[in-house]
Amino acid sequence: MNEKNSETPDAPDARRGFLKQVIGGASALPFAVVGGTAVAAPAPAPAAAGPVVNQVFGYTSFSPAEAAFVETMVNIMCPADEFSPNGVDAGLAIYIDRQLAGEYGKGVKRYMRGPWMEGKPQHGPQLPLTPEQHFKAGIEAANAACVHQHGKGFDQLSPVDGNAFLNDLANGKVKNDSLSLGTWFNELVYPLFQQACFADPIYGGNVGKVFWKMIGYPGLPATNTINMVQYRGKQVPGSLDPKSISDFS
Question: Is residue 234 part of a domain?
């Protein structure tokens, strides 16, 4: 399933925009003050050896068609480069699948009795759907819109066309009569993508702690309030070898 999602030499660097937004939102890179101006401190150099890639296979929530959509999506949002493997190899699809298959995806402790009325934006989606059902309904609606626009499914698009389609989703330009695809992407898909990048690797994503290493996060244990004071503009001790929950198990 990965072969059709592999990188192409002529794919524009702008496709990494989704991941750049995540890293910017994390605000984790330390800053140094030079001549009264705040500048970003140098990021740790990538390891000489190739990145660790995801070795967990098989989905517990996604059907084959849904898996094809999600794998294509995370590879476009996180293409392989010198800093990280692609989204599938980084475990992002596995993380999302496991979250949707678990208590979060099943809507455990979520009020599900209605009535379902239009709410304020800050109230979030008012839907009679669990997160898993919402995610799957969005895949179906988005893929149908893609077939209507391009004559083929999302997983069959080139990386350039796929990236453009995802940006249209994020900007609310892809319409569906029964589901707000803009809300689906921005309030469900993208947050799960962010979590997949930076959650502890024990949950399936961030394989090899690649994203922690990218931003210089030392993992656990880390008293980051103290670190921000003591190591502002400097490399945090342990950032080249961050520790996961599994390292203390």
Answer: no
CB within 8 Å of 241: residues ≥ 6 apart: none
Query: Is residue 120 within 8 Å of 183, Cβ to Cβ?
Result: no
Q: Is residue 142 part of a domain?
A: no
Give, as one character, the DSSP assignment of residue 172: T
Relative to beta strand 31-34, strand 37-40 is antiparallel
> Which residues span the domain enclosing 170?
3-116+154-214
- Is residue 53, in this structure, part of any structural domain at all? yes
Residues 94-151 pLDDT 10s: 999 999 999 999 999 888 887 888 778 777 778 889 999 999 999 999 999 999 999 9
- Residue 246 resides in a domain: no
Q: State the total domains in the chain.
A: 1
User: Which structure tokens are listed for 132?
Assistant: 């898993």
Count of alpha carbons within 13 Å of 198, Cβ hemisphere only?
Answer: 19
> For the range 57-61, what are the long-range contacts, defined as Cβ-Cβ under 8 Å and sequence gap of 24 or more?
59/93, 59/94, 59/97, 60/97, 60/98, 60/101, 61/97, 61/98, 61/100, 61/101, 61/105, 61/132
Distances from the Cα of 1 to the Cα of 13, 68, 89, 220, angstroms: 23, 7, 12, 34
